[in-house]
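Data deposition worksheet. Section B asks for the primary sequence of the deposited chain exactly as it was used as input, without tags or linkers unless they were present during the calculation. Section C holds the resulting structure in token form. Section D is free text for depositor observations; keep each observation to a single sentence. Incomplete worksheets are returned to the depositor.
Section A, Depositor: J.P.
Section B:
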Amino acid sequence: MLGSLFALGSAFFWACAVILFKKSGETFSPISLNIYKSVVGLLLVSATMLLLGIPFFPQQPLNTWVLLSLSGFLGITLADLFFFIALNRLGAGMAAIVECLYLPSVLIFSYLLLDEHLSAGGILGGLLVLGAVLVGSIQKKELPLASDIPAISRLPAVLAGIMAMIFLALGIVIIKEILTHTDVFWATLVRLAAAIVTLVILLACHPGRQRLLAELRWSGSWLVALPASICGNYIALLLWVAGMKYTTASRAAILNQMSTIFIFILAAVFLKEKITNNKGMAIMMAISGALLTIFT
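Section C:
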């Protein structure tokens, strides 16, 4: 039950972050935004570890350090980079459909690498949540692209979203067994540190590094990017890792997919977007699927 609550909490805070990250994408490029949010997350996790007295260099085998670092590279450096590219170019409906690949990706990797199997209730719950995202994303008109991006740019953006979900799923599944005997804060710290190192290398090799560095200087954009980073790369990230630690990867993934449903609700509350019949049905389907997953 504890792991399920963590996974649901992660979905909620990630939904809050996505709405803010979408706004941040108007002034930050994907690379600079990824660096910014990762640094914010690292500082906050480090401060929390200091307050709680959690050691920064515990006695752990080299394999644990390597796998956590690889997880950070896959799940933060690559996954978030591709995710921000997709988020900047795709409308909310299309992006939500692409994000549906996260759940089946985790199910496949957890089956291949961890030999996990879902119960009948878990399978039904997963199908309900996945179906809810698809139903809620259906529009009467063609799914819109953000900022009037030409249709020719749609395929690269969709492919970027697909790669983001695959890297995200693989990055967390490969450390599932490690999480059973490591501290959540320390594991998150190593993942973030590895991501920042690889992002800095990427920045140094980028031909437009001067422009990217300029984007990282203090500006009014921080007023949106900072709360987004706190929600997404501190609270949601810690809860995501904790959810994977305290329940199966398959169950956590089903509940993580609820983030899209939370986005529908938050958009209605804060952005005054109308809850259409499709979205209303999707919310009911998703809640039913989440309950089935938690209690079966």
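Section D:
Residues 100 and 130 are 6 Å apart (CA to CA).
The chain has one domain: 2-295.
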